[in-house]
Known about the structure:
- The protein has 558 residues and is mainly β.
- It has two domains: 20-106, Carboxypeptidase-like, regulatory domain (Immunoglobulin-like, Sandwich); 149-557, Porin.
- Helix content is 5%, strand content 54%.
- The chain has three helices and 36 strands.
- It has an 18-stranded antiparallel β-barrel. Strands 1, 4, 6, 8 and 9 form a five-stranded mixed sheet that branches.
- The N and C termini lie far apart (77 Å).
Amino acid sequence: MMVLAMLGFGASQSDASPAKAAVSGVVRDVQGTPQMGALVELLTADATTMFSTMTDDHGRYILPSVIPGKYQLRATAAFFVPVTRPNLSLHAGAQAIINLTMNTFFEANGWLPAQKRTPGDPADDWKWTLRSTASRPLLRYVDPETGLEMSTSSAEVHKASRQARVAMFNGDGAFGDGGMHQVLTMDRIAEEGDGAILRVDMRDPQVPLTVAPSVEAMTGYERQMPFGGRTRMVGSFGSHPEMIANGVPGFEVLRLATTHEIALGDMVMIDVGTLLEAEKLEHTRLMSDPFLSLTMKPNPDMALEYRYASGRQVQSSDDLNQLKPQPTVLTDLNGRPLSDHGSHHEISVSHKIGEDRVLSVAIYRDSFTNAALMGSGAIDGDTMQAAPVISDPTTATFRLATAGYTGRGMSVAFSEKLTPVLTATAEYDLGSTLRADQVGVALSSLKTTAHTAPAAKVSLHGKVLRTGTSVKAEYRWQPLRTLTQVNAYNTTQDEAYLSFGIRQRVWCGRFLPKGMDAVVEATNLLEQGYQPFLAPDGHTLFLAQVPRAIQGGLAFNF
């Protein structure tokens, strides 16, 4: 009787214990070959090893009797880059099937490195973003040996999608971007996560010039790599017959950008790429702008980053989201295109404070071969003969080339999520900028020198909940006589003083088609920071970090 009682007591104790979870799967290389002898570890959030096992001769592993909770799953093996599956939730009484794919060091070194610190990257109506690797699972498949459905993600298989957008907008004041535009954008995402996009922008012929319409055509492709990275390629061609340099109209540019991202586990991210560009004014120029970024995360709340960039247009893989590049052409007195190539070296530290706040500190060193000064006013032939200017008469704006400079600086940025989709950012920069020695003098006599100056910015970007409104609003201040941006590699080329952008979903029942957005953008709305100079004929021109520009229109989504 006592023995039976003890057995009954043991059984009741066993029934009262919580149910355990289990994890199993297969470890393969990128060619699909099972890897025998790989070490598979189940880690807690602070990287403490809770359970571990080795794969068998078919690459299979199993971790039975695991306490339910949130874990990381990591696989390591000789001559392979470690791979980690983060945010793995194990539930009581359930068995998770998680397959892992490992990449060899040789294959990883075959890719070139890539990224940039983006203190607040507002999305607008003319940007496209393919979904990130973190939100896209790999395909499910049936294991030929067991007949079981296997998956590398607990999420559902991503469905293929197609969408298109037709936009019409009008505006004035933006260099090379005024007048009425008709834009067609189409993109497609395949089931395996690869994506492609096409964008065509045609602008109506402009007055006072009777020239052909300007055209920009761009296409992009993104491929997800088996080991967790991605490779991107974007090509574009632009023709701007309205631009004039040395009295000769016409500007054409051909761009090809390629980028690669490599994730070495959860701790290291490498981002590398190159922008190739051919520009044609009266003459032709070829150039190449490579970039490199190395980010290390010693813990989930801290990131250390080294970044090198040579051009401002493409400094990371994410910069390829911008399929509407701004004309950045410069010219000398003879109409030959000049390089705005430079170099930017930066070391930054970012620390996450709680769930919604991020503090970043960076030091950097910049150098520019030639500097570009933005201006506003009508340019005549005498001015073009006296100064290295390329003008856009249709918007009464121009770009003036001046000598480059070298400098260094530091930056502090703090961002906080006000809501899950709305973020506020504050930044302070202290660094080198070009300053005019005198104002009111002839443009051909303009002298600039590099000085250390401060700059401050506050911004709000994201979406307003339950309104269908996307918003970006910012105010960036610099001292009055500065002509170039402080910390130029970490500011977009349209950041100056008061600027905003609003995209509003229009709800009009059956009277208007579904998926219609109204878009308004304004840059340097109050026309601050303008510096007067004299043209050879005596009329006044103005230099500014960015001239005022206003654009608005409608977009139809399908």
